[in-house]
């Protein structure tokens, strides 16, 4: 059977988030958010054989400031996390296409 995979991939720019618990405690982070949807079509008739979608997020930066401890900071390469997020989304949306062995 000849098949065709079509779909949409949407990955947003890093989105910031800030949380202030008090004047002495604050947290901030930035994360990539993405979604994918895909359909498997019969190439001859155009009929949909199956479809799936997946969503995910990856944190690219984080700051934590507290009164009782030193500030903490962590960051990763956004391009590398973008690639990991896309791989994660594709892996999840194609999960049904991989074979499995089940013990009888």
Q: In words, what does this structure look like?
A:
The chain is of the alpha+beta class. It has 1 helix and 5 strands, in the order βββββα. Strands 1, 2, 3, 4 and 5 form a 5-stranded antiparallel sheet that branches. The radius of gyration is 20 Å and the shape is elongated. The mean pLDDT is 90.
Strand content: over 45%
What is the number of E strands?
5
- The quaternary organization reads as single chain
Mean pLDDT: 90
List segments where confidence is low: pLDDT < 50 over at least 5 consecutive residues.
none
Given helix and strand content, the structural type is: alpha+beta
**Proportion in helices:** 10-25%
Layout of strands and helices, then pairs:
Elements: E1 3-11, E2 15-22, E3 25-42, E4 48-66, E5 69-75, H1 78-93
Antiparallel strand pairs: 1-3, 2-3, 3-4, 4-5
Keywords:
104 residues, 15% helix, elongated, alpha+beta, five-stranded antiparallel β-sheet
């Amino acid at each position: 059977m000849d098949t065709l995979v079509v779909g949409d991939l949407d990955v947003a720019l890093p989105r910031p988030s800030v949380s202030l618990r008090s004047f002495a405690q604050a947290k901030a982070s930035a994360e990539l958010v993405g979604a994918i949807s895909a359909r498997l079509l019969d190439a001859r008739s155009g009929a949909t054989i199956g479809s799936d979608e997946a969503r995910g997020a990856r944190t690219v930066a984080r700051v934590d400031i507290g009164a009782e401890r030193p500030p903490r900071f962590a960051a990763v390469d956004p391009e590398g996390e973008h690639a990991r997020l896309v791989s994660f989304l594709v892996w999840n949306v194609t999960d049904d296409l991989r074979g499995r062995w089940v013990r009888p």
